Amino acid sequence: AELTRLPATSFEAQAIAELVDPVQSLLATGFDASRESVLGSNLGNYRVVHFATHGLIDSRYPALSALAFSQFDERGNPLDGFLRLHDIYNLDLNADLVTMSACSTALGREISGEGLTGLAQGLMYSGSRSVLASLWQVPDRATAELMKRFYQNLLEKNQKPAEALRNAQLELSSTVRWRDPYFWSAFVLQGDWR
Questions:
Q1: Among 20, 46, 40, 47, which residue's Cα sits nearest to residue 155?
Q2: H-helix segments, the chain
Q3: pLDDT tens digits in sequence order for the chain, 194 residues long
């Protein structure tokens, strides 16, 4: 699939990073936001992990679902930029929250006895206590604005994730530009909501 650029993800990542002590954060954007940087990072050291990218969901074959990262290095050489479901299962997370700020990441395939198999399930299997994911294709700019407000509520105002999400949704819905539920209601919190 041809992936379009997501210019607001850089704004989103920077806005969130500014809320955290730089010594306690890892910010990877542009060519640094690669599959290898995710797999090579010790994500188990982070309480909160945030991915702002494309989500590719295959409900027929969940193993083909992935988060998309840089497809090229700084010299223009092609890279495997897809963090697939099996990669996610092999991550070693110890996060209170992992956010997939990407399209349709809460979806997957319903498998009898297993439940919904997809990226969110993979993150929980890998050690995340909760996952924030979307139910449909989300617009780049509105999602960046929602995530900025969510993390302000979570990190600056010390709100619990469910409360921080709800308040961010209320804030966005009260503005004329983002009033339509399409812009603010796609994200759901799974797992430990406290």
A1: 20
A2: 7-17, 35-40, 85-89, 119-125, 140-151, 161-173, 181-184
A3: 678 999 999 999 999 999 999 999 999 999 999 999 999 999 999 999 999 999 999 989 999 999 999 999 999 999 999 999 999 999 999 999 999 999 999 998 888 777 778 999 999 999 999 999 999 999 999 999 999 999 999 999 999 999 999 999 999 999 999 999 999 999 999 998 67
